[in-house]
Amino acid sequence: NAGVTQTPKFQVLKTGQSMTLQCAQDMNHNSMYWYRQDPGMGLRLIYYSASEGTTDKGEVPNGYNVSRLNKREFSLRLESAAPSQTSVYFCASSEDRAEKAIYEQYFGPGTRLTVT
Amino acid sequence: ILNVEQSPQSLHVQEGDSTNFTCSFPSSNFYALHWYRWETAKSPEALFVMTLNGDEKKKGRISATLNTKEGYSYLYIKGSQPEDSATYLCAFICGTGNQFYFGTGTSLTVIP
């Protein structure tokens, strides 16, 4: 059981370049999330997906797009990277339960992205 | 923008001391509150999930309480050990349970 995996671990981009961050989970979770973590700030939600085929904006969605490819995979794309997108990106997943009571999240190891 | 505040920002305690820290959140539209432990170079791991009708949660030497009317949660660590050194995050969940708002965390260092 690998849990939540993310690729790549590190990436350096030039301003204007594009790239896709990959995330996969093997826990059969319905919900998946993308966060960014910046110094002095808490984890901020970029996008989430409550189920395969659905995505919704979080707190800071501008400059990003996402794709829920299937139940396992949720990718985050930067179409035209900007220095303000330099950050550590975390993917997470959670199990939905019928009683809608508990959504603890399982996090991936993170991707450290630098945009120059 | 929804404000979730944690205090103190950092804390140094001696091994064996007990300690506690606070997470403050809006008192309306509460769905759940999560506590996570985040060790350096690792990913956050869930400690507790606290819901509206929940009681105090306990896991070994760590426990958490919740007051949704006044909008705060306390995390307590009894008899701190060096392996408790980590950043402790709280996350406020509102609405239908899909929007997570994290605090900036309390960094705990336990000195042997």
Question: How does this structure look, described?
Answer:
- The complex is a heterodimer of chains A (116) and B (112).
- Chain A is mostly beta strands and 116 residues long.
- Chain A has no helices and eleven strands.
- In chain A, the strands form two sheets. In chain A, strands 2, 4, 5, 6, 9, 10 and 11 form a seven-stranded mixed beta sheet that branches.
- In chain A, strand 7 (65-68) and strand 8 (74-78) form a beta hairpin.
- Chain A starts with a strand and ends with a strand.
- The mean pLDDT of chain A is 91.
- In chain B, the strands form two sheets. In chain B, strands 2, 4, 5, 9, 10 and 11 form a six-stranded mixed beta sheet that branches. In chain B, strands 1-3-8-7-6 form a five-stranded antiparallel beta sheet, with no helix packed on it.
- Chain B is globular.
- Chain B starts with a strand and ends with a strand.
- Chain A binds chain B through residues 4, 31, 33, 35, 40-45, 48, 50, 56, 58-59, 90, 100-110, and chain B through 1, 4, 32, 34, 36, 42-46, 49, 51, 89, 91, 93, 96-105.
How many helical elements of chain A? 0
Mean pLDDT of chain B: 92
Question: What is the rounded Rg of chain B?
Answer: 14 Å
* Count of distinct strands of chain B: 11
Q: Give the helix proportion of chain A (percent range).
A: under 10%
Which key terms come to mind for this protein?
heterodimer; A: 116 residues; mainly beta; 7-stranded mixed beta sheet; 4-stranded antiparallel beta sheet; 11 strands; B: 112 residues; 6-stranded mixed beta sheet; 5-stranded antiparallel beta sheet
Blueprint (SSEs and pairs):
The complex is a heterodimer of chains A (116) and B (112).
Chain A: E1 4-7, E2 10-13, E3 19-25, E4 31-37, E5 44-51, E6 54-57, E7 65-68, E8 74-78, E9 87-94, E10 105-107, E11 111-115
Parallel strand pairs in A: 2-11
Antiparallel strand pairs in A: 1-3, 3-8, 4-5, 4-9, 5-6, 7-8, 9-10, 9-11
Chain B: E1 5-7, E2 10-14, E3 19-24, E4 30-38, E5 45-51, E6 57-59, E7 62-67, E8 72-77, E9 86-94, E10 99-102, E11 106-111
Parallel strand pairs in B: 2-11
Antiparallel strand pairs in B: 1-3, 3-8, 4-5, 4-9, 6-7, 7-8, 9-10, 9-11
